[in-house]
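Give me structure tokens for this 312-residue protein.
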Amino acid sequence: MTAPLRPLARPRRLVPGDRVAVVAPSGPVPADRLALGCGLLRSWGLEVEVAPHTTDVAPGRPYLAGTDADRARDLERAWLDPGTAAVVCARGGYGAQRMVDLLDWDALRAAPPKAFVGYSDVTALHEAFAVRLGLATLHGPMAAALTFVKDGPTAEGLRRALMEPESALVLTSPTAATLVPGRARGVTAGGCASLLAAERGTPHARPSFAGAVLLLEDVGEEPYRLDRILTQLLRSGVFDGVAGVALGSWQDCGPAEAVRALMLDRLGPLGVPVVEELGFGHGPSTLTVPLGVPAVLDADAATLTLEAPGLV
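Here you go.
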């Protein structure tokens, strides 16, 4: 039997004057939104350094922010810089899987831990950081994300998670609701469902989410594709022993009623509590949720309560 997930090591919180590195491990970054996002980070008293290739576009592959090697080196240099306290991804898109195996994981492991923030395609890096570094990370808004620069609660949620983490322990949203009742305790894990499925069979894919409070969300996947994604994950056995499931946003994934019926069909047989629309992911407002920390999912109250903050 697979051992349940254990809490991961937590980096330190940020304080005014800390330096934050902004990197683009996936898609190209709109310069105007990047400037707005960096301005927000600076307004919190943080220094911001934008990695050299963040606004690059790969020749012949306009969906990538520069070459795989350049994206990997940007992230690696930021992580190994002793003066950097956090690494914030600029956006998602696609490309993290192309560069993750180019990182020097031995060097990253030897460096002091630091906060790492992102979601969507960055799910592949969250999993790699958990497997290779044993490090808790933040599933949260990215520096050039529209929600970060336009939605006040999204930005404030990230600020609190980074700088006042003990003030952001009870997570919920106005849309959160019970899908399957009950209460469960586990270690937070997960992210973008399609990325979790795409990671199956790769070196950084955990064989099991047993004991996890599993986070799942996605964007732009029609119900039949979501069905395929969830079915693949179920058939792989990675959901066996999951303690509970927290569902985020399913923006542009079809009618809400169809998505809800699909989640009941695929996840209901797990026999664990499930909360829907908790408010993390690709929605118009985005919660920051630490990954790798113990938490209680109360599906009846539609809350996720962290038993420890994501940063110390």
